[in-house]
Design a protein that fits this description.
- The protein is mainly β and about 120 residues long.
- It contains no helices and 11 strands.
- The strands form 2 sheets. Strands 2, 4, 5, 6, 9, 10 and 11 form a 7-stranded mixed β-sheet that branches. A 4-stranded antiparallel β-sheet has the order 1-3-8-7, with no helix packed on it.
- The chain starts with a strand and ends with a strand.
Length: about 120
Amino acid sequence: QVQLMESGGGSVQAGGSLRLSCSPSMSMYTRTCMGWFRQAPGREREGVATISAGGRTTYTESVKGRFTISKDVANNILYLEMSNLKPEDAGVYYCATRRPSPRTCDFDMQYWGEGTLVTISS
């Protein structure tokens, strides 16, 4: 079973930027559907962005224009570049993926990392 390890979380002021990284233990997963999710205290986990095997990206409405999901297949890394951060972006961010499938890449994932915490001060 694949393991996912996130890094890059931290504390930043509102308006600032962070870049999150995720490395799956099996390199094949950077060639499949991958995504980022987040969970704020007291709220359900929500999908933030996905990237398909072919590189097509989707974003939840609240982060469009501010977040960018990308992947470095050669080095087996998934990224989430976050800019113009707002207090409501705070939470634990999770990397996720699923087994290769012909299905459209969406927020339906099978494997999850343990998360990295993002805190934002106003």
